[in-house]
Design a protein that fits this description.
InterPro entries: Rab4/Rab5_effector, START-like_dom_sf, Znf_FYVE_PHD. The chain is of the alpha+beta class and 436 residues long. It contains ten helices and 14 strands.
Length: 436
């Protein structure tokens, strides 16, 4: 670990013990989460003690329950949040939106999720990256700085956390993208009095359904730190959990920002009609906007705003760019392709097992830092366990992980059948009592 003050100047080097501990902890979290399947997801949530907290529409349900903290008899004031949503997207859209392997894309993703509450973000370490066997594989250390509330009443929060992501398949044969995150005790960047460091743990499961849509499941639990009241933060957590419902919109936003050029003042159009709906608009009207993509004049009714994160040195962290609905519709089609002529990454039928730590043949090439400065500093640290040359897991370890997943699936199936049998016996007893 190298000392630093600014997040962009920080570099974190993980030794073998840290990597193995954090990776297998996150992997165990995903294995446990995948004991449920799309067909029984909400029933399992209710069975485990979750209660419906919000039902924005028929596709998105948010559940909450009191969290167990430290000891089974001690309850936390901050609820666990579970969001189950069905979105009109594909796994490629999810991968394009949620795979952030560099600081620029990481900041962009945070800006789309938190909008005006986003302050800063950086990638401090990259240990595993995507490869042919797993196009969504990533493991490393990230940093974010945000406001939990739009009013900025409670001050900013920041966190340094590890993230592990990859592809797999559940017991019903659905393709799944998983993401697991948790904060770690690294004082990088150095804590400052004006910012409160918070702790959280969360995971995502994105499952490709038979009808072509994606089931998005998001679990989140956090301790905001400071003097943030629990009853206010629980509402913040519920609102944050619903952002998976906006994945199609986030995908289009990202495509528009990534594939359009910046316009200058001389590109201002001379037309006095909206380029999207052809409605008349005056040249001096306040309702007149300019699309950042096609440069056409658009009225306020046809404006769609996309968020772009700025560099860390900028005076503000993000800006909202104006686009017209015509370009937004085009982006919804192009985002399905990602790029012209691109091969879809997640259509391979061989993605049937939980991706191990390093399934790539060239494991050393995957274990690289986020920038060249990481490798430059690695020689000066004099740490024999620095990560660039550490060996990957053995074949026995990988096989054990697959066996654990299969065994856990059978245990869950047996428990489900036993619960259904007890339920049927109870129903028969109640029916018999009613007839009497």
């Amino acid at each position: 670990m190298l000392p630093c003050g600014n997040a962009d100047d920080c570099v974190v080097l993980l030794d073998e013990e840290q990597y193995q501990t954090w990776k297998y902890d996150l992997r165990g979290t995903i294995v446990q989460a995948m004991q449920s399947s799309p067909s029984t997801r909400e029933y399992d949530a209710v069975f485990e003690g979750y209660k419906l907290a919000s039902s924005k529409n028929s596709r998105t349900h948010v559940f909450k329950r009191k969290a167990v903290h430290n000891r089974p008899t001690k309850k936390s004031s901050f609820n666990e949040m579970l969001c189950v949503s069905t979105v009109d997207a594909t796994l490629d859209d999810v991968a394009y939106t949620m795979y952030n392997a560099d600081t620029a894309s990481h900041r962009s993703n945070l800006a789309m999720v938190y909008e005006n509450r986003f302050l800063d973000g950086a990638i401090l370490n990259t240990t595993l990256t995507k490869c042919d066997q797993d196009p969504f594989q990533w493991f490393g250390v990230k940093y974010m700085k945000i406001h939990f509330d739009a009013s900025e009443l409670f001050g900013p929060r920041d966190a340094t956390y590890v993230e592990y992501s990859g592809t797999t398949a559940d017991r019903e044969g659905h393709k799944v993208i998983f993401i697991a995150r948790r904060t770690v005790p690294l004082n990088v960047p150095a804590a400052v009095p004006s910012v409160t460091r918070f702790e959280f743990k969360e995971w995502f499961l994105f499952t490709q359904l038979r009808d072509g849509r994606v089931e998005a499941v998001h679990w989140y639990h956090a301790f905001p730190g400071g003097n943030f009241p629990a009853f206010l933060f629980n509402n913040v957590a519920v609102k944050y959990g619903r952002f998976v419902d906006q994945l199609p919109h986030m995908c289009r936003q990202k495509w528009l920002v990534d594939h359009t050029v910046r316009l200058s003042a001389r590109d201002a159009p001379q037309r006095q009609r909206c380029g999207a709906c052809n409605a008349p608009i005056k040249r001096s009207s306040r309702k007149r906007q300019q699309c950042h993509s096609c440069a056409e004049a658009v009225c306020n009714k046809c404006v769609v705003r996309a968020i772009r994160a700025l560099d860390a040195e900028a005076a503000q962290s993000m800006i909202k760019l104006v686009y017209c609905k015509k370009c937004y519709v085009i982006a919804s089609c192009r985002s399905q392709q990602l790029q012209d002529g691109a091969v879809r990454l997640l259509d391979d039928e061989t993605l049937k097992t939980l991706s191990p730590a390093a399934p790539c043949p060239e494991v050393k090439a995957c274990r690289e830092s986020v920038a060249s400065r990481t490798s430059l500093h690695s020689d000066s640290t004099h740490s024999p366990s620095s990560y660039s040359g550490s060996p990957g897991p053995t074949t026995q370890e990988q096989g054990r992980g697959s066996e654990d997943l299969t065994a856990a699936s059978f245990v869950r199936l047996s428990e489900s059948l036993r619960a259904q049998k007890l339920l049927m016996n109870e129903l028969n007893r109640q029916l018999a009592t009613a007839h009497i």
